[in-house]
Write a structure and sequence with these properties.
Serine Threonine Protein Phosphatase 5, Tetratricopeptide repeat, about 400 residues, Immunoglobulin-like, five-stranded mixed β-sheet, alpha+beta, about 40% helix
């Protein structure tokens, strides 16, 4: 213990400073252990003084009980010392009590301050936690941090809470779908991306990621179906790689007067299937080269292409007709006239045709004489009638030539 006035070390058992003479005071480094020690020390001092006082008071004054002479003086001195010791003890006890009360008061204040501080800290923590729990931005930020750390479960919890705070937020839904995909829960990711595509038909990111998931699963039919709901050209462009290109006929459908050779083209890497009888081309023949349509034929061509993802495109359909046309007239040389010398008549027929003729003015048929070699001109005034017949039985217009052959007499 130290003197509160001069700071000198107090001797054990002293209630006054041996340096400055001031009454001993408890300084700030006092503690409960020192308090107990002081109390015990003072108690021992008081007991000692009382014991000495009792021993000094043993001789009594004769007759009247009052001590006489030196002994009486000693008794009085002893009583005075006892009284002084009692007074010192009482002062020490009072000082210790006051000091103890001050220490207790300080302890009470310290404990109260500590409790108040703990309560304040707890309140602040609760306020911060409440604020964070109800902050959309905080939840999204923590979700992204967890995602970077590959803590997908924590990231999902943060995003789920963010969606509870703002249920229609597009970015939160996209992030949650990404988390599902990263965790291998592709079905959940597909469902959520599909929902986003319906709610936000202009969201390219949702379409692109959904297409990637379908492609990963090789569900190209789902990609084809998804393309039907594409909102604009930019969205539709995301499907270009997967969509089959429709086959194209190399000529327009219609009526023609000559034999046709109809080509069909398609995207590189695709296969084309077709039919000519109006049935489903998916069950038809694979296209290998141009389709021939002859004279007098009417053909409906149905064609469809299948790309490398085994997806069928739209069907191409066209009707082609080649009409039967009568052939041109045959040609004869000489083509008529008057002659006095013998003549041979040479006939030329249109390509692919046969020529029939008569000399009696009637129209030739396929039962009439067929031209196979030059015809000798008969005498007199005669008319040669000719027709050409093609392989389809179509007849040309009639050609008539008048020959007058009068040989000299």
């Amino acid at each position: 213990m130290k003197c509160a006035n001069c700071g000198a070390e107090l001797k054990v058992g002293c209630i006054y400073c041996s340096v400055c003479g001031k009454e001993a005071q408890i300084v700030s480094d006092y503690n409960l252990l020192e308090d107990d020690f002081l109390r015990n020390m003072l108690q021992e001092r008081e007991d000692k003084i009382r014991k000495e006082a009792a021993q000094t008071a043993l001789p009594r004054k004769k007759q009247g009980g009052q001590p006489t002479g030196a002994k009486g003086q000693a008794g009085r001195t002893s009583r005075q010392n006892g009284q002084a010791g009692k007074t010192a003890s009482q002062k020490a006890d009072g000082q210790a009590g006051r000091q103890k009360r001050r220490v207790k008061k300080r302890l009470v204040f310290a404990v109260a301050a500590m409790v108040l501080l703990v309560v304040l800290i707890a309140a602040i923590v609760l306020m911060v936690n409440h604020s964070r729990a109800n902050s959309f931005d905080y939840q999204m930020g923590q979700a992204n941090i967890s995602l970077e750390d590959k803590n997908y479960r924590a990231a999902e919890n943060y995003v789920t809470r963010a969606l509870e705070l703002k249920e229609d937020d597009l970015q939160a839904k996209l992030l949650l779908a990404d988390i599902y995909a990263l965790r291998g829960e592709e079905r959940k990711a597909i469902e959520l991306f599909g929902k986003v595509c319906k709610e936000h038909p202009d969201c390219q990111e949702a379409y692109q990621k959904l297409i990637s998931l379908y492609a990963k699963q090789k569900d190209y039919e789902a990609i084809l179906k998804l393309s039907e709901g594409a909102a604009d050209e930019d969205i539709f462009g995301l499907f270009t790689e997967y969509l089959p290109v429709d086959p194209v006929f190399g000529m327009e459908e219609g009526v023609y007067t000559q034999e046709l050779s109809v080509p069909i083209s398609a995207e590189e890497g695709s296969r084309v299937y077709y039919t000519l009888d109006g049935t489903d081309p998916r069950q038809g023949r694979e296209y290998q080269g141009p389709i021939i349509i002859g004279q007098g034929e009417t053909v409906e061509i149905r064609a469809i292409a299948k790309n490398r993802y085994e997806l069928y495109g739209n069907e191409a359909k066209g009707t082609f007709t080649v009409e039967l046309c009568k052939p041109g007239k045959p040609w004869a040389s000489p083509g008529g006239g008057s002659f006095s010398q013998p003549q041979e008549i040479v006939v030329k027929a249109p390509e692919g045709c046969r020529v029939y003729y008569t000399w009696d003015g009637t129209t030739p048929t396929e039962q009439s004489a067929q031209y196979t070699q030059p015809i000798a001109m008969p005498e007199g005034n005669n008319i040669l009638t000719l027709i050409a017949v093609d392989k389809h039985g179509m007849r040309s217009d009639v050609l008539k030539c008048n020959y007058i052959y009068m040989p000299p007499m």
